[in-house]
Amino acid sequence: LRIAVLASGRGSNFAALLAARDRGELIADFVLVASDKPHAGALQLAQTAGIPTLVLDPHDYAERRDYDFALFDRIAASKPDVLVLAGFMRIIDGDALKPWVGRMINIHPSLLPKYRGLHTHRRALKAGDSEHGASVHYVTAELDGGPVIAQTLLPVEAGDDENTLAARLLPLEHQLLSAVVALIAAGRLSLGADGIVFDGQPL
Ligand code: GRF
After folding, report:
1. Is pTM, for the whole model, over 0.90?
2. Ligand 1 pocket, residue 139 CB under 6 Å
3. What pLDDT does 73 receive?
4. Which residue's alpha carbon is at the smallest distance from atom 10 of ligand 1?
5. Residue 80 CB coordination number (10 Å)
6. Residue 144 has what pLDDT?
């Protein structure tokens, strides 16, 4: 399986995918790491791992949509089978991502459909939730709204603040994302017309 990763930040989720590959748990080739941020840690990780990188600066494009189409055109040139958004912090134009629906997943730090968008840990705390977590979902034009593949749960503890909650959730995100990508790489997971199919059964 040829995987392209899109990341805007430090890249710990991408690092987890690399580690899963190195442990033989994920049979895949990383063909590209793309970012909208020239100093994203994920780019350094990729370079160290000998994986091609691409940086496209949104400031070079007058319209958001122009950027998104240019980005996906450049990504397509690497001929990935699957795109993984691993801390990619841009909302992607629906028309630009349309060709990738069913082949693009995202990890989001909330129990979707709760808390789409930003500041999820803060919002869960503010709501007094006793449980928090993360979701991996197929990406559609609806922000953080695509079919959810799998979730990981985390109890909220007394005294938690958004930093402690985010820090406790991050390793669980890494496990969740690696497990889902490994299932896709093993051909056990796909998005059909009627939703997600896992081992031949509707999920
Ligand atoms: C993760 O918490 C992810 O759920 C969210 O942004 C963070 C990315 O972290 N989308 P990293 O760049 O993978 O370390």
Report:
1. yes
2. no
3. 98
4. 87
5. 22
6. 97
Helix, strand, or coil (residue 44): helix
- Report the C-alpha gap between 44 and 50 in whole angstroms: 10
4, β-bridge pairs: 32, 83
Q: How confident is the model at residue 10, as a pLDDT?
A: 97
pLDDT in tens, 43-78: 999 999 999 999 999 999 999 999 999 999 999 999
Q: Closest ligand 1 atom, CA of 16? A: 13
d(CA 198, CA 75): 27
Residue 11 annotated in ligand binding: yes
Q: How do the residues of the chain divide into helix, strand and coil, expressed in percent and rounded to 5?
A: 35, 25, 40
In sequence order, what are the residues at sequence separation of 6 or more whose Cβ sits closer than 8 angstroms to the Cβ of residue 172?
133, 134, 152, 154
The answer to whether the beta carbons of residues 78 and 2 sit under 8 Å apart is yes
- Helix axis angle, 162-185 to 12-22, nearest 10°: 40
